[in-house]
Amino acid sequence: MTDVVINGQTPREVLVSALSDAFPEWLVVPVENVPDSLDRPAIVIKQRSIAPLPEAPQSHFTVSSLVTVVDDHTEWANAEPSLDTNVLLVWAALMGTKNVHPKTATKALFNTQYLSYDIETDLTVQKG
Asked: What domains can you pick out in the chain, each with its CATH number?
């Protein structure tokens, strides 16, 4: 069987581990099932696609995920400034994680009540 893990972790586990370490007080959710209400900021990992890396299609591939940064305030006047800071903190943490490449962050609405950002993120994996 071909090895497709990074230092013993799957791509999802790489993201969860890095973000849990960077934000120990936040809720880091490794799957798309999250609580209806939040009492702290949350990060939700949603793996989306897998494709060959164009520069090396025989030996590397890219796992694309959405990393959703959710503010726990339900009053948007409080959520907006907090989210402005938190999305930048998460972006920086992703940039500091080996083989992880954040691409864009798009503002979104999470569970119809929380402001959030979806950060499109690619993680490069070498098969071997």
From this structure: 11-126 (3.30.2000.10)
Residues belonging to the chain: 128
Residue 62, beta-bridge partner list: 51, 124
Rounded Cα–Cα distance for residues 113 and 46 (Å): 19
**pLDDT of the residue at 42:** 96
Structure token digits, residue 44: 């939700």
Residue 95 or 8, more confident: 95
Contacts of 74 (CB under 8 A, 6+ apart): 113, 114
Listing from the earlier edge strand, what are the strands of the sheet with 42-52? Answer: 27-29, 42-52, 60-70, 114-126, 100-110
Nearest to 60 by CA among 118, 18, 101: 101
C-alpha–C-alpha distance, residues 126 and 74, integer Å: 41
